[in-house]
Amino acid sequence: MNHKKHKKVFFALVMLASLNATSQVKSQNNNIWFHYVGKNMISEKTSFTVEATMRYANGFSEKQQWFIRPSLDYKFTSKFTGSVGFTHYETYSYGNPVLNKITSPENHVWIQGTYTHSKGDSKFIHRLRDENRFVGIAKRNSLTNNFEIDHYEYRNRVRYMFLVNYTLTKVDEKPKLFAVLGDEVFLNIGSNAGKTFLNQNRIIAGLGYNLNANHQLQLNYIHQKIWNFSNTIQEDNPTIRLTYVTNFDWTK
Question: What pLDDT score was predicted for residue 5?
Answer without folding.
Answer: 54
